[in-house]
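User: Design a sequence. Structure:
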């Protein structure tokens, strides 16, 4: 059996780095009063780095008294010592550095081209420095965008900003974002913003590029109209106007018609005013925002809306950053077995939960909130806080309807499948049939019409999920 002692080798190389015995490289790092002389060994540096193999070649090297001389005024002595320690013994400690310094170190490591360390620092930033991104999203995004060597950090920044776009769009520096970066963000399918909010931010950015032009488009002269048209032109095709409500389109988009393609304005007006008329245009799909919760049926923003309904906040919704609940997936019919028995196995005695039901052959979802619990033996239970809901189109949050339980009525029934209302407003029977008899215990919401059996509305379901709701 071969004998190995890699740690001993690492320790010996670290000692060599620290005591500088027989060094043949002098590095002048930093500049002015910060300049420091650092000693190293060319054999080790050449062996571990292509950058140093070139730097110490005959064509590039500077030598004095038999020693290689390397001048790096753009790299601080602290950073250079950290890099050399990694070259000698594979060790680096980033915990004492703040986010901005770690990013600066990454740029330096990229210059010296140490691929293993480039990858490690990117991974460290993505795992431990999320708050850094909140502090300076513009600066980080532009720094990473300019460097093709940081794909891990680039992907993380884009995903994070699409998941929590308020980090960027509510920043005071948003208007300073370079046009190519704004274009990249608007192209993303997972940008978690309503389309009208994307439009509002685009207008805000365009106006900020020409602060001498009035914010009121009716006040623009011909030259100003041309300037604004040229500014917005590259972004127009990225806005999904068919996913902006007719009211928002008329109030917020139509005033800027003079700087937009006339056929786009006309087609969008027809789309909203005569929705049954077929247009000779390709309608863009809605943005499919990534769900930070384990759902295949809904987006993260749905959970923010559910949280608002649980708190009976109907005038304003929570956003993704301040959701006061955790939502833990308990059960998915398509994954765990689509039977009432499996539902009870996974969901009984887990406390409050919310049920999300995807209607077959449509984008509609319905469901309900049980603030108590499920079990297999209890019958009807009274609640003051339960509700049922519907999204006629799960991709359009404006199609939401919610109804809280009527005072004095039963809210839930435990002994069947998920059941809301004393009159089975929304009910999964023991034989796995979804039906409704709404309104009874809840106000009327848009539960789809299927076919009538025994006075009940029977409808087809593609899948459903149940999430445990826990106050943070």
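Assistant: Done.
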């Amino acid at each position: 059996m071969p004998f190995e002692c890699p740690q001993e080798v690492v320790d010996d190389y670290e000692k060599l780095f620290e005591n500088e015995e027989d060094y043949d490289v002098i590095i002048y790092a930093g500049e002015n009063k910060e300049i420091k002389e650092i000693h190293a060994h060319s054999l080790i540096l050449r062996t571990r780095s292509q950058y140093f193999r070139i730097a110490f070649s005959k064509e590039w090297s500077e030598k004095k008294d038999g020693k290689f001389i390397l001048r790096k005024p753009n790299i601080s002595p602290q950073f250079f010592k950290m890099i050399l320690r990694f070259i000698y013994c594979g060790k680096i400690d980033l915990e004492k550095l703040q986010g901005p310094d770690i990013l600066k170190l990454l740029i330096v490591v990229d210059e010296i081209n140490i691929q293993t360390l480039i990858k490690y620092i990117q991974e460290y930033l993505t795992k431990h420095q999320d708050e850094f991104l909140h502090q300076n999203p513009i600066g980080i995004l532009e720094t990473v965008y300019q460097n093709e060597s940081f794909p891990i950090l680039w992907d993380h920044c884009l995903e994070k900003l699409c998941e929590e776009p308020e980090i960027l769009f509510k920043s005071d520096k948003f208007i300073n974002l370079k046009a190519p970066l704004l274009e990249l963000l608007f192209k993303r399918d997972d940008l978690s913003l309503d389309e009208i909010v994307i439009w509002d931010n685009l207008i805000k950015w365009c106006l900020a590029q020409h602060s001498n032009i009035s914010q009121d488009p009716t006040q623009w002269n011909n030259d100003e109209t041309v300037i604004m048209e040229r500014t917005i032109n590259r972004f127009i095709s990225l806005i999904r106007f068919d996913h902006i409500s007719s009211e928002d389109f008329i109030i917020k988009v139509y005033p800027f018609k003079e700087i937009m393609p006339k056929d786009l304005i006309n087609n969008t007006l027809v789309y909203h005013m005569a929705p049954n008329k077929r247009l000779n245009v390709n309608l863009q799909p809605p943005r499919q925002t990534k769900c930070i919760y384990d759902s295949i049926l809904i987006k993260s923003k749905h959970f923010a809306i559910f949280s608002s309904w649980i708190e009976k906040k109907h005038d304003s919704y929570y956003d993704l950053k301040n959701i006061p609940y955790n939502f833990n997936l308990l059960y998915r019919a398509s994954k765990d077995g689509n039977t009432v028995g499996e539902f009870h196995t996974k969901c009984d005695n887990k406390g409050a939960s919310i049920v999300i039901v995807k209607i077959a052959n449509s984008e509609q979802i319905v469901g309900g909130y049980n603030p108590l619990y499920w079990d297999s033996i209890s019958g009807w239970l009274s609640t003051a806080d339960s509700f049922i809901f519907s999204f006629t189109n799960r991709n359009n949050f404006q199609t939401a309807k919610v109804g809280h339980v009527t005072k004095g009525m039963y809210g839930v029934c435990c002994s069947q499948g998920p059941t809301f209302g004393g009159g089975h407003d929304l009910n999964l029977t023991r034989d796995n049939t979804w039906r409704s008899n709404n309104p009874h215990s809840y106000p009327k919401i848009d539960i789809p019409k299927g076919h009538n059996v025994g006075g009940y509305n029977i409808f087809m379901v593609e899948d459903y999920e149940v999430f445990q709701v826990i106050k943070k």
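The chain has 18 helices and 17 strands. Residues 302 and 397 are 8 Å apart (CA to CA).
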